[in-house]
Amino acid sequence: MDAPALRAGRGVGVARLAYRDLSAFLGALEKEGELVRIRERVSPVLEIAEIADRSVKAGGPALLFTNVAGSSIPVAINLFASRRRTLMALSIESWSEWDARLEFFLDPTPPEGLLSKLKAIPKFTELAQVFPKTVRSAPCQEVVETGDAVDLTKLPVLTCWPQDAGPFITLPLVITRDPASGKTNVGVYRMQVFDRNTTGMHWQKHKDGAGQARGYERQGRRMEVAVAIGADPATVFSGVAPLPPGLSEFLLAGFLRGEGVPLVPAKTVDIAVPAEAEIVLEGFVDPGERRREGPFGDHTGFYSLDDDFPVFHVTAVTRRKEPVYLTTIVGRPPMEDGFLGEAVERLFLPLIKKTIPEIVDMYLPVEGIFHNLMLVSIDKRFPGHARKTMHAIWGTGQMMFTKTIVVFDKEVPLRNPREVLWRALTAIDPERDIELVRGPVDELDFASRLPCYGSKMGIDATRKWKEEGFERRWPDEILMSEEVKRRVDALWPALKIRLPGAP
Ligand SMILES: Cc1cc2nc3c(=O)[nH]c(=O)nc-3n(C[C@H](O)[C@H](O)[C@H](O)COP(=O)(O)O)c2cc1C
Ligand SMILES: [Mn+2]
């Protein structure tokens, strides 16, 4: 991770290895053998998707297509499609390093004594540097196209799956401002390209962008929107991160980078956009306007049906002279977004633990597509604790969508599917241990009785206590004695038993 494009920061607090822009990240990936350039001519209609899908399913590299039919712009995909690349993207060495780094900022005890106070100063100085900073001129505005010059069909937007309604911009950073507070939100919401200058705007009901749009609609006002396509990887990631409304995604990106995101005022709307972005679309969404969007092969592994969504009118395109089009595909798991989901899970776990302190670990298997299955282990302290945990999860941000939560005792290794199945199924009396609730569900859930409203299930797979009405004896697990294990360890070579898979 020491590519020359990176600026090494060695502070104890937030100074990181920041990638200035997408090219710097592509360069670092290439240097690490994590990127393959493809010079063969390929079509953005289904072909790139099929190549990217095969690649991600086999743990392959990031891909840069430099010869895309119908466009002069190269296509980058699967940049986040492995744990290693995602950590690189976020300038995080390991998740334990991240936990340690956050701990300082989350620790509520003020430094005691002069020495530790002095030691804390540089951390706060660094923290002051992570706020976005405004710049006056920017690479993302090297070329400015307005009016008739706007033509989205010049972009190499992918058609991903056979039944898709058309090409979809899949990794756009949709930047909007709240009509009341003026605060900026960044969210990744897919955009179906309808024609040269209009797209769909697929912000789902519960998302911050949609919330802000409701504010404009109530006032009957036109909403300005800017969309950045392709930026430094921390900024791209921040658009996916489920931050509480009002908390700045650009600030999260700055914290990850150890350096504030440079923002430049957009040319035709009153929104600041990442100066180092590849391509920026500027325009508006009109109150009340809706258009059929989809179907779209979605991250559930099924096609999301067509439905009515707001329309984005693009009035200006600004870009670099030689931009790269950053995209991704979603579909049957595992896909690139699964790695982004894993990063979200690991990044936010220390924060979640601060409000739901009994949580020891949390794991969202990729087949559960984020909202269908969460495994969580807790340090159980009181009767009904597992159920309290479920309700706390259902009451927290986008975790409200979790269709199935399975709660385990703290020692259960959540990432071992065999242990998880064995433990969960032996520990439950279904009628007693399943908690069914109704409430909001993910808009992409097609099985719920109504769109966005359905039921959720919590499974209490913890060991049951007397205080919970369990009067029988709970058996011990079978474990060999340590002494015998040591004796057999010593004996083992002489036994000459060759086990498959053993060295
Ligand atoms: C590749 C990808 C595509 C996504 N597409 C959408 C989408 O079309 N609509 C949506 O509401 N959320 C979509 N999301 C999820 C949001 O980006 C995510 O929920 C984010 O937290 C939203 O930001 P917000 O909390 O500021 O609303 C997508 C995520 C990824 C990784
Ligand atoms: Mn947000």
Please explain how this structure is put together:
This protein is an alpha+beta fold and 503 residues long. Helix content is 28%, strand content 22%. The protein is built from 13 helices and 25 strands. The protein is globular. It starts with 21 loop residues before the first helix and ends in an 8-residue tail after the last helix. Mean pLDDT is 94; it is low at 1-15. Residues 170-171, 185, 187-190, 202-204, 207-209, 239-243, 328, 330, 337, 340, 398 line the site of flavin mononucleotide.
List the helices and strands and how they pair.
Elements (H helix, E strand, L loop, with lengths): L21 H10 L3 E4 L8 H11 L4 E4 L9 E3 L5 H7 L5 H12 L6 H16 L4 E2 L8 E4 L21 E2 L2 E6 L6 E5 L2 E5 L2 E3 L7 H11 L4 E7 L3 H6 L10 H9 L4 E4 L6 E3 L4 E7 L5 E3 L2 E2 L5 E2 L2 E3 L1 E9 L5 E2 L9 H20 L3 E5 L10 E5 L6 H10 L9 E6 L7 H11 L2 H4 E7 L12 E8 L21 H14 L8
Parallel strand pairs: 1-2, 3-20, 4-12, 22-23, 23-25
Antiparallel strand pairs: 2-3, 5-19, 6-9, 7-8, 7-11, 9-10, 10-19, 11-14, 12-13, 14-19, 15-18, 16-17, 21-22, 24-25
The protein binds flavin mononucleotide and manganese (II) ion.
Residue windows where pLDDT falls under 50 for at least 5 positions: 1-15
Question: What structural class results from the helix and strand content?
Answer: alpha+beta
Radius of gyration: 25 Å
* Shape assignment: globular
Into which percent range does the helicity of residues fall?
A: 25-40%
The small molecules bound here are: flavin mononucleotide, manganese (II) ion
Structure annotation, total helices:
13
